Amino acid sequence: MCATGGSGLSTLKYGTSKENVRSMLVVTPQGELIRTRAKTRKSSTGYELNALYLGAEGTLGLIVEITVRIVPLPKLRCGAVVRFPSVGQAAQTTSDVVAMNLSTLLRCELMNDEGIKVTNTVFKTTLPCAPTLFLEFVGNRKEEMLSDWDSFRARAVANGAESHTFAEDGAQLDALWDARRGCYLGAMRYRGLESGTNSKEKVYVGDVCVPASKLSECIAITEREFKKARFPCVICAHIADGNFHCLIPFQESERAALLALEDKVIGHAIALGGSASGEHGVGIGKQKYLILEHGGAHIDVQRRIKRALDPLNIMNPGKIISWDPSDAERIGPQRPELARL
Predict the structure, then answer these.
(1) Residue 253 contacts by C-beta under 8 Å, 6 or more apart in sequence?
(2) What is the CATH number of domain 11-68?
(3) Which of 39, 247, 249, 333 could cysteine-pair with 23, CB 3.0–4.6 Å?
(4) What region holds the FAD-binding PCMH-type domain (predicted)?
């Protein structure tokens, strides 16, 4: 989580992993052990080294210890699923509710209609096939949680929600959330069950992030592109963050077509002001998109940092930033297939 700057389902309430790390011990490429900062809430004594190493994917040093912020475990849980005619209405509701700052709302996740269809097929659930928000509220006072749910429901109804199902306790809630938790396994098994072969497939996992105001537009473009190419498109979104994962089952013979679609989807996300990766990182596979997202000057700054701290290139070499400028950097930020966006 620290190496990629990953997040999770509870970012809405508690923030990303980066926001919850107070301090780290890091082994440098020279074999020295350093502490990034004091374990205090506030520190203003030089460069913020936490920010440097978090998300660096091990290319600048090896994280061996972390000190994290902790919060009390709430005693009570409840939640709901809310169905909408469109992703846009679900996104608008989420935007409205985030602005209301409901203190007990822990999670707000979206699955698209095809994601619900896949879950019903694989896990024998009977959820209506519609864009669906999955909610979880936590706290120590039931009346406060129910008040926040009432506020959420009122906004959802005002934005055209078709129906909802409420779970009063944790056990009921876990049953409602099974669809969201099983989306990856569902995508893996879906086409095998549909074809009667019961085979499992590889699953491509996307990870773009866009401004919340652009989420519904980006999801609509993504669904259209994959459906046009006859791929099932399961979408699970950390909708309050503008971050969504498209889970696409594929055979090896379909890899080239899938990667061409990845170029289009990530290109659209970046054109909408977004990022090629919200939480999974760059590695090798997403390096080619950095020039589109950041431009050459930004990449040059990152490369200078890498070369200064790891001059022998021994820390996870070849990841995130290439040692030498790529052809795309030399040519410029635009690639022909994305120039029309």
Answers:
(1) none
(2) 3.30.465.10
(3) 39
(4) 1-73
